[in-house]
């Protein structure tokens, strides 16, 4: 383990990371967001979704540093008396969960389709890439809205409420796979004619095994970059859907839901209900995008 750590600390990737102050700050911000979300039950001052602990008498309290603030609510409270800081920490868990799961789903679908299209070629390649091209003509948010709308129309409201989180993950993931598929296809077209792949064919290794054990490891780099950059986009898409009221169920509010709720009170003076969740969303997405930009440059041999 110590040897692996020593090699990692001596790698070009770690050197590039240390040499970029922006990347270091982005990593720290992203780590704070992730830890705050994962450890919300431990670190949050209150449980904003425990109805037994809520009191309407605590509603609309401003942040603690204002003259009318209460130290029990560092970032103020909303219209239900929920602590905004605690709501942000719990809401970030849902946003991160949807973002990570939808990107993983899109990665798996895109990598499989890209490998098949690039390695097999011919009619399969043409068919799969035309499907990807058609989907790319539509904005991802419209595809996610279409999927969510179809599911809502097909299922009873109580069933949709139970599986709403999975529907959002599927809707966002199915709208993002073409980027992975096209990238993997391009890399696979290059790899399939190299000597090691031809040698594997000669000795009788099956096509499925060649794709999984020979080609796939050599196309992982670009996939990691797209996944990192796509995570920020997935979080924004989920927040947009939740802001529009068609995202995660109201019983599992994300940062987008908190922003939508606070938007109703923005012009009545309770600005903190929407501003702080918005700032948390900006910090999370911006830090992830900056890390993705660094990873793209660090893994590009032309920029070394």
Automatic annotation (TrEMBL):
CDD domains: TM_PBP2 (cd06261). It is found in: Cell membrane. Gene3D superfamilies: MetI-like (1.10.3720.10). It is a multi-pass membrane protein. Residues 92-292 form the ABC transmembrane type-1 domain. The chain crosses the membrane at residues 21-44, 94-119, 131-151, 163-184, 215-236, 271-295. GO terms for cellular component: plasma membrane. This is ABC transporter permease.
